[in-house]
Amino acid sequence: MRVAIVGFGFSAEKSHVPVYRDRSDINLTAAVDPVTARRAAALRQYPNIRVYETFSDLLEEYSDEIDIIDICLPNALHLENIKQALLANKHVLCEKPLVLNKNEYNELVHIANEQKRILYPCHNYKFAPSIVHAAYLIKSGEIGKPLFASFNIFGAGFQRGVPHWQPDWRKDKALAGGGIMSDHGLDAISVAQTLFGGSPQRISAHTRSLNEADSQLEDLAIFCLDWEEKLINISLSSIGSIPKAYYRIQGTEGEISIENNDVFLSVQNKPVQHIFVPTYFDDPGHANWFNGLIDNLLDCINTKNTEPFPLMEAGLVLDIIEKANSSSYNGGVWMGLEFIPKSLQLVS
Q: Are residues 217 and 191 in the same domain?
């Protein structure tokens, strides 16, 4: 498959490109970026690719040589570039969050179905090795029936972009669209879905903007999901100095804890098992997770599955974030969730 990257920033360079370079079934043939220094960076890594200043230039000159458009742009720029790619009859891989609201999501799903193209959001936490292994343990019945989960994700500020173009764009609501809920919140919801399958019925949430007085973006969120007879409590913060993530799942017969590369399985009347699963949550690029995501994308293309799992999950995430904001505004009241995904099963 021939790929063109649109937006050669941090995610493209540190997460996507290293995987493309090592695969024989993916060929990076072009890169688009409005900044000269970033086009030069792409050429240093891939001297034989074509580079373009605008996406329109690529489509006008080189469209026939592209199968997949990989969009690595700031969040608010996703919608129009995805539409342009789909209408050019290309499959689309797009960094998260896919779009900023449910109307945009519904529009893109309709276009993708009309064009019979695959629209695939980069929900990479579904392929984090320790999360995949924990999902296997839960599915195998190791802890009995899951009852409660607690996720605690501590960030160290908003991740900066490349220095050549607005490195603090994630602090700009016009470009980012949302704060920690659109970033780590999306990942936490995706982890919950990967571990348990199905979808939640309601949410209670509190969000705050604490670190910067003039910021319109939340940097703290605490929310609880009522998830098919399970309660999932999620705490997110980007106001710390060291990024850390902890996941704990309790069931009728035991529990699982995840701390970076360490998975601990504790079953009643048995010694605690410590399983080392190289995951490296503190590496912001997460390039070692990206191969699984690409495998799933290519499988969707080969089977003509126009409803890939992460696309269905993206609609659920948008509904949860919208209701979380409403719940917080109303003092944490429980809010029912409306999005009913067509095929929210576990990724195999």
A: yes
For residue 4, the number of C-alpha atoms closer than 13 Å in the C-beta half-sphere is 28
Q: Point out the domain boundary residue: 79, 95, 122.
A: 122
Q: Along the 348 residues of the chain, how does pLDDT read in single tens digits? A: 999 999 999 999 999 999 999 999 999 999 999 999 999 999 999 999 999 999 999 999 999 999 999 999 999 999 999 999 999 999 999 999 999 999 999 999 999 999 999 999 999 999 999 999 999 999 999 999 999 999 999 987 777 777 787 778 787 888 888 999 998 999 999 999 999 999 999 999 999 998 765 568 899 999 999 999 999 999 999 988 888 899 999 999 999 999 989 999 999 889 999 999 999 887 777 888 999 999 999 999 999 999 999 999 999 999 999 999 999 999 999 999 988 766 554 444
What pTM did the predictor assign?
Answer: 0.93
CATH number at residue 320: 3.30.360.10
Instruction: For CA atoms 104, 109, 115, 121, give the dihedral sign.
Output: positive
| Residues 209/263, Cβ–Cβ less than 8 Å | no
Q: Which residue has the tokens 């190289």?
A: 278
Task: Report the distance separating Cα 131 and Cα 188, nearest Å.
Answer: 11
Q: How far is CA 242 from CA 155, 156, 282, in A?
A: 7, 5, 9
Structure tokens at 78: 């996703």
Whether 35 and 52 have beta carbons less than 8 Å apart is answered as no
Whether residues 76 and 137 share a domain: the answer is: no
- The count of C-alpha atoms lying within 13 angstroms of the C-alpha of 151, restricted to the half-sphere facing its C-beta, is 24
Q: Are residues 100 and 131 in the same domain?
A: no
64 by Cβ neighbours in 10 Å (0-12 / 13-18 / 19+) ranks as exposed
